[in-house]
Known about the structure:
Layout: H1 2-7, H2 9-14, H3 18-37, H4 42-71, H5 79-107, H6 110-116, H7 118-128, E1 131-132, E2 135-136, H8 150-163, H9 170-195, H10 200-220, H11 223-235, H12 238-260, H13 267-298, H14 303-324
Amino acid sequence: MVLESVLGERVVRKHPLFILFMAVVISVGSLICANAFFPAYSSVLSIAFITIGFAPLIHRILLHEESEEALTKKSCVTFFARHFNLIMIYVWLFVGIILTFSIVYLVIPQEQSKSIFSEQMKTFCAISGKCEGGNPFSMVAGESEKAGTVTGKATALAMEECKNSETKNLASCAAYIFENNSGVLVFTLILSLFYGAGAIFLIAWNASVLGIFFGEMIASGAIVQGLGMLESMLIGHGPPELLGYIFGALAGAIISAMVAKGKFLTHEFELIFKDFIFLTGLAFFSVFYGAIMEALIMTESNSVLYYGMGFVYMVTVILLVVLYGRKSSSDVCDTDLF
């Protein structure tokens, strides 16, 4: 595509922040095209167009990532350094789509937004349990049943289970959330494994729902709720869940890139398969950690522990980035393939 040709994958890999700019441009273009040609299905097709727009670029980046990983001396470069920029590409992609959908939701007329973002609104209704006539922040009976997405149904069912007075306890709530979120993680792994950049669809979908969430909160003046959601995203159960899905997407993607190059039963495959196992384990641990945190807040067990666990997770991530997130400047470790 044009943006990919102008910036180049080398620039994107070295400076993942460019993905934020690309995400905004591609998301706006996808929304315009989906609404212009398929207005009745624009809420889903816009996500498909975003996936199509990013898939070639992400696939090429993954091929270079796999090649560089195979050639890099493991003693010179830490695990997090090898994958740091690729992880940040997924993070900035997520942030860019949230930003775009929030702004577009705010600037277009309300009646038009109901059509363009219909599926996102249904999913938001299922998650929040607050809808009336398709509008967020009020509730109608049966609205949650209309949500047609994996993540929307999973979150809605988890909320129902955790709020049920007969079954409400921390252990069962955490187990239920982990089971649902693990299903989404497995789906992410499968998509990435067989489709390389396929997990972009799930990342883009969840980002679009959050974009509508923030857009509606700003539009309705529900600033307190918005700040609460933002707080959960920054220091609550949001980071473990998001990074868990990103680790899962990356795990499947690097194996997919290896298979695409036809390098079976080689020493290179063995090295990358070890990273696949580690990333998969890290993904499930993050989702499990996030499930415990979400159960704490849903069952109102211990808000201090909830934010304490969130703080510990974020401090750990920051320390890993600072201490192990950059490659060595040594000439021995220099493996720039470009």
